[in-house]
């Protein structure tokens, strides 16, 4: 096995490489890491190729002898890069894969941006057959287009593709700071969009936890997955007969309920819950298909995610940062 990994220096990429290279069943496998701006620490089993996903020669070199592709590279809200990275890059990888004599499987890490996560309403749990509804912005659009492209290559050429659609991926202390009102907040939402800037600033100085409510007034329910569970799903999907030409939602068994989170943190950390009305929708990314077909089970529930986040001590050389592009 020779696996090409894009996005190898990201959150999922680093976790995957550590697990994959430590698996006895893949002890003879090698990795090609296609990197643009950053570097991967190499050993005898990792080859690094530097270049752009939009460069055909770089893709040809990276795909030489490859049996499996794990595509995770992405750009966020960068319109000037979207076509080159998300569209042209995906196209070149798929073209190289379908023409390769050694190719066996293409695994794409998708996102719940393709189903609009909290921005679009679904009257029932979101399954793999639910309609795609991207929210505004080029990043969500690329998540839809990537799913459609691999789907069409399966139809047109019989390509063996697998899509693992993940929601917001947590690791280390991410979840703790996703709930922060301070300048150290990780991700969103932007609190000043939901309340006055003065109130947001005041809350940032205290020991508060947000209890967001959806547009119906009920506690907001949003989908998350811990990086360890996503990596476990990746390992399960590689060469699995049931993964051939399939899309899977890879999420926690239930969406995170912000009322349950607030209650837990009030009880265990002495925090004070602050109710925040929002225009968001509560949605449930149903993982039944992945549990049934792949035999995969997420191990980290919301309490586990809280405990991991609050107990993690981040070193100065390990900043909490989202890198786009990379």
What does this structure look like?
With 326 residues, the protein is an alpha/beta fold. The chain folds into 2 domains: 2-170 and 222-255 and 283-300, Rossmann fold (3-Layer(aba) Sandwich); 174-220 and 256-277, no CATH class. The chain is 35% helix and 18% strand. The strands form 4 sheets. Strands 3-2-1-4-5-6-11 form a 7-stranded parallel β-sheet, sandwiched between helices. Strands 7-10 form a two-stranded parallel ribbon. Helix 1 crosses helix 7. It is globular. The mean pLDDT is 93.
Detail the topology: elements first, then pairings.
Blueprint (H helix, E strand, L loop, with lengths): L1 E5 L4 H12 L7 E6 L10 E5 L5 H8 L4 E4 L7 H21 L5 E7 L26 H20 L3 E6 L1 E3 L3 H5 L18 H7 L4 E6 L7 E2 L1 E3 H11 L8 E4 L6 E2 H12 L2 E6 L10 H7 L7 H10 L15
Parallel strand pairs: 1-2, 1-4, 2-3, 4-5, 5-6, 6-11, 7-10, 8-13
Antiparallel strand pairs: 9-12
Helix pairs in contact: 1-7, 2-3, 3-4
Could you name the key traits of this structure?
35% helix, Rossmann fold, 326 residues, globular, single chain, 10 helices, alpha/beta, 7-stranded parallel beta sheet, two-stranded parallel ribbon
């Amino acid at each position: 096995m020779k696996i090409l990994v894009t996005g190898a220096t990201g959150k999922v990429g680093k976790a995957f490489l550590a697990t994959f290279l430590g698996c006895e069943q893949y002890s003879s496998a090698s990795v090609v890491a296609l990197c643009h701006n950053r570097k991967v620490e190499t050993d005898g089993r990792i080859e690094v190729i530097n270049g752009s996903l939009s460069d055909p020669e770089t893709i040809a070199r990276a795909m030489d002898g490859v049996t499996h592709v794990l595509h995770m590279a992405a750009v966020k809200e960068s319109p000037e890069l979207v076509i080159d990275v998300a569209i042209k890059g995906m196209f070149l990888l798929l073209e190289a894969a379908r023409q390769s004599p050694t190719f066996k499987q293409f695994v794409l890490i998708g996102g719940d941006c393709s189903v609009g996560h909290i921005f679009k309403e679904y009257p029932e749990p979101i399954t793999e057959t639910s309609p795609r509804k991207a929210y505004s912005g080029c990043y969500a659009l690329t998540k839809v287009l990537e799913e459609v492209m691999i789907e069409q290559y399966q139809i047109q050429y019989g390509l063996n593709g697998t899509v693992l659609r993940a929601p917001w991926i947590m690791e280390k202390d991410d979840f703790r700071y996703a709930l922060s009102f301070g300048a150290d907040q990780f991700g969103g939402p932007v609190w000043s969009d939901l309340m006055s800037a003065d109130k947001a600033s005041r809350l940032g100085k205290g020991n508060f936890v947000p209890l967001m409510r959806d547009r119906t007034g009920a506690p907001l329910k949003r989908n998350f997955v811990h990086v360890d569970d996503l990596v476990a799903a990746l390992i399960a999907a590689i060469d699995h007969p049931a993964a051939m030409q399939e899309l899977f939602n890879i999420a926690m068994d239930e969406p995170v309920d912000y009322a349950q989170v607030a209650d837990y943190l009030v009880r265990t950390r002495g925090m004070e819950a602050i109710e925040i009305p929002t225009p968001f929708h509560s949605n449930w990314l149903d993982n039944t298909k992945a549990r049934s077909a792949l035999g995969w089970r997420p191990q980290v529930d919301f309490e586990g995610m809280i405990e991991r986040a609050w107990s993690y001590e981040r070193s100065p050389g390990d900043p909490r940062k989202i890198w786009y592009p990379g």
